Amino acid sequence: MNGSRARDAGQPLLLGVRHHGPGSAKAVRAALEASRPRIVLIEGPPEADPLVPLAAAEDMRPPVALLAHAVDEPGRSAFWPLAGFSPEWVALRWALEHGVPARFIDLPAAHTLAWERDEEDRGGEDMDGGEKDGEDGGMDAGAEQDALGEDVRVDPLGVLAETAGYDDAERWWEDVVEHRGAGKGDALAPFTALEEAMTALRETYGSGGHGRDLIREAHMRLRIRDARREFEDGVAVVCGAWHVPALRRRTGVTADRALLKGLPKVKTDVTWVPWTHRRLSRAGGYGAGIDSPGWYAHLFAVPDRPVERWLTEVAGLLRAEDRTVSPGHVIEAVRLAETLAALRGRPLPGLGEATDAVRAVMCEGSDVPLALVHDRLVVGDVLGEVPHTVPAVPLQRDLERTQRRLRLRPEAAERELDLDLREETGAERSRLLHRLRLLGIDWGRPDASRSGTGTFRETWRLRWEPELAVRTAEAGVWGTTVLAAATAKAEADAVAARGLADVTTLAEHCLLAALPDALPVVMRVLADRAALDTDVAHLAQALPALVRSLRYGDVRGTGTAALTEVAAGLAERVFVGLPPACAGLDADAAEEMRGHVDAVHGALSLLGDVPAAPDGRLRARWRAVLRTLSVRDTVPGVLRGRAVRLLLDEGELAQDEAARFMGLALSPGTPPADAAAWIEGFVGGSGGGLLLVHDERLFGLVDRWLTAVPTEAFTDVLPLLRRTFSAYESGVRRTLGELVRRGPGRRDRTDTAAAGAPGFGPGVDEARADAVLPVLRLLLGPDCDEGTRGERVEVRR
């Protein structure tokens, strides 16, 4: 075929492309060099025309995206991503480099956003063989139905690939476009061939289920007519190949304007924002649905021998990960990729052949290192950059200044950030990240596995996602700086909070984010909610967060006197309401209440470390509440057992008294289900198994009760017992099994000491015990003699 049709006198040069296709990008560059148009029209929102010159800035580096959002509702937005290998980006840069005007001609974002008020899906495959990146955000209200008479969404590349005998549209496109080269011979021939194919498809499928495309195409035709009146025959249009037949069709101006009449409209702002290869690879949301953006960037950038260069990059990555990969591996992988391409009837090896070769030669058949190759190279962590002069809301500007001052550069790859809150920089970084989380800008997420509650260290996982630009614009309604916006947002959230636990959590976040102006409002709401809430479960849920806030205040040097008073009052109300709230509960409610009891107990333990807290009074009251729970028959067994266990751990119960409580709970008169629940409460959780291991009296009580359970009741209590004992560590379970095999009570402590336990001597070796004292003196200092003598006496005893 030749390019005569595209070069007809007076007709615009229509360059149909596949969005984000490196082959299309190279072909567009060759076609523009050959035709030298006087103006370049590009599929995209016309509101972005003033931003076109910024694409030539030195600090503009793709991937980037045009972001359009409604001024009155920033969360309603759309993106138009552009990678370095996108045909639209290549056309834009070519126009700027040659001093040629470049304009966007798609449906204005003002209509797109208004139409998508109730439209959730902005992703998926576009009908022009590209992706719906937001540029296809039109609507189908009032649009014509397609030629099929039904709303069937046609994938044009899939149809063409199936017609050519391919079962994979990606592989077909690689074979007919990416691997055929660009700029060789007639530069316009590929576009002529693709236009003929798309014309046949449009004749068969009409709009292909995209009724909104008819309206978009009408607007594009009007913009093309305007350009032709101004520049005559020097007009080049870069758009999705699916639209080319519709743009070529001769229609009346009146008919096109009639389609656009009465469209809804909103006031919009448009700007450039950074984008990522990882986001390009996602099909949903704002993603472009490109499986291999890193591979596409490689194909576009390399001058020749793409497979050889690619496999060399793969080898470098694997060697950096300490895998043995030699030049010989690369040579063999290239040969295998070429052989696979020949066997599969492909003109050149593609990503599939290269991947198969890497798996077989460099990864020894394993998919584990292959996953690393896919993540780092096939997709990649490339993050674009935009100039600081691009339009942005004041909040975005303040965030950028703070990021530069704290040396926190946004990155597409996830990284770990360890902060020392004793250092000013670490504390400021922590405050910034917590403030952003309050605003819904989750740039960083705390790593619970590394950061301890109330300690002076925090660990964060940072990853900058393009959507955070929308979150920042949306949060701009709260203030012009991060501090002011977070303060206003916290105050509003406190007033709108529905539950007491929500307010206490918010108070915790205010301390973490250092928002002193918001804290009085939050505390006032907290006091009001606490006074009105009579649900003990709600009070018990709120207390732990409040106590954590007190500890955070100590670490960060924040005043928390008001929190201490509220926490003490909340605890008193829990003490009064807990015993009656625990009476008459069923099994599920009792298990839930046990969690609340544990949470309150842990909170009061933390509260004891806060100097301003009335430790003695609160802890003494709490121990009295636990004693009340432990003896009331109306309280479920799981709660009575838990109360006894907590008192034992606190040192308020002696071992003999705990054994007495267990003996009463496991007496023959107690129903087996109640006894099993008591056991779960007492020995469930951390440390419960060790109690049985080291106290044979308790172990014997459980053993004798279990062997006496009637057969008909045993199957009922077995699931509860299995749940209790299965939570123990394997070593504890193994030791308990040995005790069962040996039989409890056969050997008392004296006999054990005399005869010697397996693996131990008959008694304490005092000489060996004294050998540790010099080491203790080095660790503890010269003043430890009295302490070590006491420890030695305790060891001997």
Q: How much is the average pLDDT? A: 79
| Low confidence ranges | 1-7, 120-152, 609-615, 747-759, 787-797
Report on the biggest sheet: 4 strands, parallel
* Share of helix, binned: 55-70%
- Please tell me what the overall shape is: elongated
Q: Provide a count of the helices.
A: 36
Radius of gyration: 36 Å
Strand content: 5-15%
Q: Termini separation (Å)?
A: 100 Å
What's the number of extended β-strand segments?
10
Strand order of the largest sheet: 1-6-2-5
Helix and strand composition category: alpha/beta
Region (Disordered): 116-142, 740-761
Biased composition (Basic and acidic residues): 740-751
Biased composition (Acidic residues): 117-138
Pfam families: DUF5682
Briefly summarize what is shown.
By secondary structure, the chain is of the alpha/beta class. Helices cover 56% and strands 7% of the residues.
Description of the molecule:
Residues 740-751 have a biased composition (Basic and acidic residues). The protein is an alpha/beta fold and 797 residues long. The chain is 56% helix and 7% strand. The protein contains 36 helices and 10 strands. The strands form 3 sheets. The protein has a 4-stranded parallel sheet with strand order 1-6-2-5. Strands 4-3-7 form a 3-stranded antiparallel sheet. β3 (64-70) and β4 form a beta hairpin. The longest helix is centred in the N-terminal third of the chain and has 21 residues, at 211-231.
